[in-house]
Design brief:
With 384 residues, the chain is α/β, with parallel strands linked by helices. The protein is built from 17 helices and 8 strands.
């Protein structure tokens, strides 16, 4: 199978490695020659490290590298069966590239976008054959992260959807099929992990270190929300939050935080700038949490129930199946458990009670309980 990748940045290079490892013939296209060379050198280093760790041998390294060609002309993607775009998150640029690409590829070629926040229907609208367009959203780093969200647009044919699910599964990835709505599964369902943690901080209930400690200790999350925002980059995380908020017609559940906006404006972007919610400079004093078990339980319960509510609402609105939602959160963002399975564990009654208590306290629409949770409580049902 011939696969084209548009964009030789971190994501494009990672997807190319995945496809080449699966024995596809891969063509990586970029207008920036220096970026293509950087991609080639980066792959060399990654594969050399895999040899050191005895994950692959020299023959396998050579096979993967031989499977990838680096090209400077979009026409050279002409023979491809599947083309995946991984470029800047701007609708006009993606549409322009796809519109040009369609002149060079066959009528059967599947054209896909790796977008994490844009409408697939809007991207597909630029094509003469929009039914061939689909979203294939990998997570960073693509070779390591198991999850891939597959997002058919309303124009996408069922044959293209089935074929893409089959292709991505053959690349040894877990596929979660999602409806073409803002944030798809992961970027939608994960919003409260950051948003509710920021609100808890803004209310003065706890500092960054205590909130992170609570969620790691009681929830088993690998990183707390403030550590994770510092890792992702405050600018990036804030932009995604703002995009989702706007796309959902300013639904209060996705409202951005002034704290994150100010940190972003100040250039406190996290690890990449040396300072975010934590100080990463050499010799900086490490923030210590207040290890209060009662406070920790309050923080954990509040964030967990908001995450569960978001996952339940995604199921209620047919964004994805219960299995795909839980797989998306465990394999896309490394949550310790699927949120719907977690809801079964803590009890649907408990979830409804917690959400109603929060709504009664704040009278904010962000705390409205998903109708699905109410229905399940009434019928004494569980997700699994």
């Amino acid at each position: 199978m011939k696969v084209g990748i548009i964009g030789s940045g971190t994501m494009g290079s990672g997807i190319a490695q995945v496809a080449a490892t699966a024995n596809c013939q891969v063509f990586v296209y970029d207008t920036n020659i220096a970026s293509l060379e950087k991609s080639r050198q980066s792959l060399e280093k990654i594969l050399a490290r895999l040899i050191e760790k005895e994950r692959i041998n020299a023959t396998e390294k050579n096979r993967i590298q031989t499977n990838i060609s680096y090209v400077e002309n979009l026409k050279e993607l002409g023979p491809c069966d599947l083309v995946i775009e991984a470029i800047v998150e701007r609708l006009d640029i993606k549409q322009q590239v796809f519109s040009e690409l369609e002149n060079y590829v066959s009528e059967e070629t599947i054209i896909a976008s790796n977008t994490s926040s844009l409408s697939i229907a809007s991207i597909a609208a630029a094509l003469k054959k929009p039914e061939r367009c689909i979203g294939i959203h990998f997570f960073n780093p693509a070779p390591l992260m198991k999850l891939v969200e597959v997002i058919p647009a309303i124009q996408t044919s069922s044959e293209v959807e089935s074929e893409v699910v089959s292709i991505i599964s053959s690349w040894k990835k877990t596929v979660a099929v999602a409806k073409d709505t803002p944030g798809f599964i992961v970027n939608r369902v994960a919003r409260p992990f950051y948003g509710e943690a920021l609100k808890i901080y803004e209310e003065g209930l706890a500092d960054f270190a205590t909130i992170d400690w609570s969620l790691k200790t009681l929830g088993g999350f690998r990183m707390g929300p403030f550590e994770l925002m510092d890792f992702i980059g405050n600018d990036v995380n804030y932009t995604v939050t703002e995009t989702v908020f706007t796309a959902f017609y300013f639904d209060q559940r996705y409202r951005p935080s002034f704290t994150q906006k100010r940190f972003s404006e100040a250039g406190y972007l996290g690890r990449k700038s040396g300072k975010g919610y934590y100080d990463y400079s050499e010799g900086a004093v490490k923030s210590e949490p207040k290890e209060d078990p009662v406070l920790a339980k309050l923080i954990f319960d509040r964030v967990l129930v908001m995450l569960i509510n978001e996952a339940a609402d995604a199921l209620f609105l047919n964004i994805a199946s219960a299995t795909d939602i839980d797989n998306a959160m465990t394999k896309g963002v490394n949550y310790p458990k699927g949120l719907l399975a977690w809801a079964d564990e803590v009890g649907i009654d408990w979830c409804v009670m917690q959400l109603d208590a929060l709504y009664e306290e704040y009278h904010e629409d962000r705390y409205r309980c998903s109708p699905l949770l109410r229905q399940m409580k009434r019928k004494n049902k569980t997700f699994f």
